[in-house]
Amino acid sequence: MPLTPAAVAAIDAAIDAQNDANVELFVDLHRHPELGFMEERTAAIAAVRLRELGYTVTTGIGGTGLAAVLENGAGPTVMYRADMDANAVAEASGRPYASTVRVTRLDGTESPVAHQCGHDAHVTWMLAMAQFLAENRSLWAGTAVLVGQPAEEVIAGAKAMVDGGLYDVIPVPDQFIGFHTVPLPVGTVMACGGVLMAGTDQLDVRLLGHGGHGSTPHLTQDPVVMAGQAIVQYQSVVGRMIDPAATAVLTVGAVQAGADNNVIPDEALLKLNLRWFDPAVRERMLRGIHDITDGIARTYGVTEDRMPEYTMKGGSTPLVNDPDLATRLADALADVLGEDSIVRSVPPFTGSEDVHLLKGPHDDIEFTYMMIGVADPEVFATAVAAGKQFPYGPHSPEFYVDLAAIPAGAKVACYAMLELLGV
C-alpha cells in the first residue's frame, strides 16, 4: 500500500520524540569505531536493542554480523541492511566527539580508526526504524528483516554472512533495501535505478627479494625498488591497456616494506584496489598487474620459487538497482520530501559496495540502494560556491555526518519500510 499521510505523521512524531536518544547513540558509536570483522561492541549494542524491541536476533553470522526478524502477520518480507565497520583513518572533522581510537589490526600493524564513511549513522538509522516498526505494528504487515553487516570497507562482509548461514536464520525477502551517507545536503535522497556503482577487487601483491646491507645493494634483490617500479608501471595498465572509453581505476593504497634506514628488506607488500564495470576490463587489469610484477621480479634475478605472490581479498560485482523498486521508492519519498529533494538519476560512479551480495543465490530479490544527504546545507552551498563538488568526501579525515541527518535519515528509513510494508 502507498505511504499514507497518517503513517508519515506517525513516523515524524516518533522520530522527533526519539531524537535525543538517537543522537546520543550515534555519538557513542562514533566515539567507539571498529574495523571490519572487529565490530564486537557495535554488534552487541545493536543485538541488545533489537532483542529489547522483540526481534528474533541471531549474532555471529560471518564473524560479527547479525540478523533480526520481526514478524507481523501476512504480507511481504522486506530486508534492510546497515553496515557497521569504520575506516583506518585519523579523523580531523573538528567535531567535539571525534574519534581518537587507535587499534592493532589483524595483520599486527597499528592504525587510527574513525567512522569517516557514516556507518555509525547507518546503524543508528536502522535501530531508530526498528523501534518505530516494533511500536507501530498497526501500520504495517509482513516480516521485517534487519541485517547488521560487518566488513563492508574491505568488501568481504556480505559474502561472509551469506557463507556463514544468513539464509538459515532469515526468510528470503521479496524486497531488499540499503542506505548510505552521501555529502549532499541533509534532506536529499538519491534513489536511482540501474547501474549505480562499480565492481571492485582488493588485491595484495607481495614482492620477495633478498635483503642485505644498504651499503651493498648489488648483493641484494631489493624488493623496495621492485615495488617502486611496479607502482609506476601499474599506471600503464589503465593508461595503455584499457580502452579509453571504458572505466577502470587502479589504486595502490598502501606500501609496506622494511624498518631501518640502512637495511634492505627481504620483501615488500603492495595493497591494490581495482574498480571496473566490465568483467573483461577487470581481467585485463589483473593480467597486466601479474605480467608487470613478474617481469620486474625476473629483471632483478628473482628465482621462480620466489616470484611475486598475489592474494585476492574482498571483491564485488557492480551494484545494479532494480529500476521499478527505485522508482517506487523515489515516488513515495517525493510525495513526502518534495520532488526537489529526490535525485532520480546519476551517471554510474566508481564507488563500490558489497551490499547486493547479501542476496546470495536469490537473484530474483528486488533490490535498491539509496544515498542519504548528511552535509549541513550551508556548508554544502559554500563548497559549491568555491567550485567544489562536495564539501568533503567519504574516507577523508574531514568527513562528518551533520547531526540534523540523524532524524532525517531515520525518517527516510521508516518511510521506505512503510512504503513496502504498510497497510
From TrEMBL:
Domain of life: Bacteria
Residues annotated to bind Mn(2+): C117, H119, E153, H180, H395
Keyword terms, alphabetized: Hydrolase, Manganese, Metal-binding
SUPFAM superfamilies with a match to the protein in the record: Bacterial exopeptidase dimerisation domain, Zn-dependent exopeptidases
MF-aspect GO terms: hydrolase activity; metal ion binding
The record's free-text note on cofactor binding: The Mn(2+) ion enhances activity.
Cofactor(s) the protein requires to work: Mn(2+)
Organism: Microbacterium mangrovi
Record protein name field: Amidohydrolase
Alphabetized Pfam families for the sequence: M20_dimer (PF07687), Peptidase_M20 (PF01546)
Residues of the Peptidase M20 dimerisation domain: 203-284
